[in-house]
Amino acid sequence: MQLDSNQLAALAAILRHGSFEAAAAALNVTPSAISQRIKALESRVGVTLVERGQPCTATPAGQRLAKHAEDVALLEAQALAALGPATGPAPSVRLAVPADVLSTWLIPVLATVPDILFDLVLDDQDTSDEWLRRGEVSAAITGHARAAPGCDVVDIGAMRYVATASPSFMSQWFSTGVTAQTLARAPMLVFNAKDQLQARWMSQCTGRKLSPPCHHLPASHGFVEAACAGLGWGMNPTLLVKSHLASGQLVPLVPDATLEVPLYWQVSRVMAPALHLLTRAIVKAGQHRLGQS
């Protein structure tokens, strides 16, 4: 099935900017033209692609087609770059990355890669590769060494985590020591339902599966602030809490009992040539920064 490039561009623009009007402005056409292109594309593929709302969102089929459109634009931009300076809008690439990677070392890396717009999806390192398997991103930072279908994988090192809490929290909940019994009672911080770092650390330290009461806090810096405030204990990247540990705001629950989480860069082989600069920057920075954690 041959798809119209203008219709695909309209779909991608709607999802990137959130509305038909904003997409029209970005593509320098009328909102009516955008609407006509989407209707024609939906008629062509036989399914709804855009959920109209504030903002407009993609259906599963719409998301896959939009990613295809972004990939084509990126590949075309790479080909045209060899012929002269770019004159059109920068292409976009969608990546799935863990929140802790984003909050510690990834943003400066992205800033070194020119002429690409980044659309980041946050997910746990244990599940971020599922976005690749569904064909919804072009690359991902994952915790899995086994490559998703059609992808290359590169080891970028291991993120080191330390179980931390405030001194007052330690006095209140662990005055008799950090044991299976005290861990089972002390309030724990959890990023979201996918977050297994605390459970893995407790199993590593005690050999038991424990289910403490927990607070759900889906933000890396909020995780640190909650631990400092004495709300609970949680696993934090050493890159994020070095200063807090040095100042005594946070203390490790068990000295030297860290948790190493391997990380890998997985990238679609189809998109790998267009993303070679990004791949090189992420691998280099990841191996350097994670080696310092």
CATH domain class of the largest domain: Alpha Beta
Broad shape: elongated
Order of helices and strands: HHHEEHEHEHEEHHEHEHEHEEH
| Radius of gyration (Å) | 22 Å
Give the domain tally: 2
CATH architecture annotation name of the largest domain: 3-Layer(aba) Sandwich
What is the makeup of the main sheet?
7 strands, mixed
Instruction: Find the count of extended strands (DSSP E, 2+ residues).
Output: 11
How would you describe the overall organization of this protein?
- The chain is 46% helix and 19% strand.
- It has helices spanning 5-17, 20-27, 31-45, 60-81, 99-110, 129-133, 167-173, 180-185, 197-206, 220-229, 238-247, 276-291, and strands spanning 50-51, 57-58, 92-97, 117-122, 139-142, 151-165, 188-190, 214-216, 234-237, 251-252, 259-268.
- Helix 9 links the parallel strand 7 (188-190) and strand 8 (214-216).
- It has 2 domains: 1-89, Arc Repressor Mutant, subunit A, CATH 1.10.10; 93-293, 3-Layer(aba) Sandwich (D-Maltodextrin-Binding Protein, domain 2).
- Strands 3, 4, 5, 6, 9, 10 and 11 form a 7-stranded mixed sheet that branches.
- The chain is elongated and about 70 Å long.
- Helix 2 packs across helix 3.
- The mean pLDDT is 92.
- With 293 residues, it is α/β, with parallel strands linked by helices.
In short:
The chain is of the alpha/beta class.
Provide the descriptors you would attach to this structure in a database record.
293 residues, alpha/beta, Arc Repressor Mutant, subunit A, D-Maltodextrin-Binding Protein, domain 2, 2 domains, two-stranded antiparallel ribbon, 12 helices, elongated
